[in-house]
Structure formats: C-alpha cells, structure tokens
C-alpha cells in the first residue's frame, strides 16, 4: 500500500497536515472516535495537549489492531470541545508528541461537548492497506 501526501499548489500550507492523500490498497479501515483515555478508560490529566497525544496514540493502537500501521493512515477528523484558534499550539504539541504518524489530511471541528464531560478531543481515522 502506498500513500502520497500532497499540498495544493498556491495554497497556504501548515506543518500539521497535508491537503490531499492519495492511497492505493484493497482494505479500507475506519477507526471510531478515540479519546484521551488510558487503557483503563480513565481520562488522562494535563489538558488538551495530553488528551490529544493519548487520543492519537489510541488511534495508532486501533490501526495496529486491524493489522496496519500509522503509515497507512490517510485521514483524521478531530472533534475538539470549546475550540478557539489560540489553542492550536497546545493541540499541535500533543499531536506532534506521537512519532511516526504522517501528517495526513485532517479536519478539526469545534463542538460544545463530547460523550462525557471533561473529554476535550475525539479523533476518527481512516487507513488504507493491502
């Protein structure tokens, strides 16, 4: 399986994601929303950065459980509670702490609340593999 990550010529780029991913493969893996909880389903402490890091680590674990790797990711959708643009640095720091995850196309959607109070981020993912 291969994933080609592209940016649209002439459009502003960001270090957090690419605009386009072109994937070839036969298996499409959809990962349900992963949150910032540990293996015992306890919310991690440390705010948005800590929860973003743990949620992305949980995405990687889910992809691996499906027999793929982080390199097979092609799209992330992030839901963040009480989002304001000034939180981008904190969010980016949490995501960047997870090594070997390509900066695939991503959407960030601000929401008022997730399934339970205290949770700040939920990440859905799509991966493609052979």
From TrEMBL:
Pfam families: Ribonuc_L-PSP (PF01042). The lineage of its organism: Bacteria, Bacillati, Actinomycetota, Thermoleophilia, Solirubrobacterales. PANTHER family: BLR7761 PROTEIN, YJGH FAMILY PROTEIN. InterPro entries: RutC-like_sf (IPR035959), YjgF/YER057c/UK114 (IPR006175). This is RidA family protein. It comes from Solirubrobacter phytolaccae.
């Amino acid at each position: 399986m291969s994933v080609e990550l592209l940016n649209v010529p002439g459009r502003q780029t960001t270090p957090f994601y690419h605009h386009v991913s072109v994937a070839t493969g036969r298996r499409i893996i959809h990962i349900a929303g992963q949150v910032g909880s540990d293996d015992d389903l306890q919310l991690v402490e440390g705010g948005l950065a800590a929860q973003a890091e743990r949620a992305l680590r949980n995405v990687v674990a889910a992809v691996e459980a499906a027999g793929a790797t982080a390199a097979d990711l092609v799209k992330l959708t992030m839901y963040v509670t009480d989002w304001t643009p000034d939180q981008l640095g904190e969010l980016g720091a949490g995501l960047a702490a997870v090594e070997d995850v390509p900066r695939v196309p991503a959407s960030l959607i601000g929401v008022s609340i997730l399934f339970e109070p205290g949770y700040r981020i939920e990440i859905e993912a799509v991966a493609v593999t052979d």
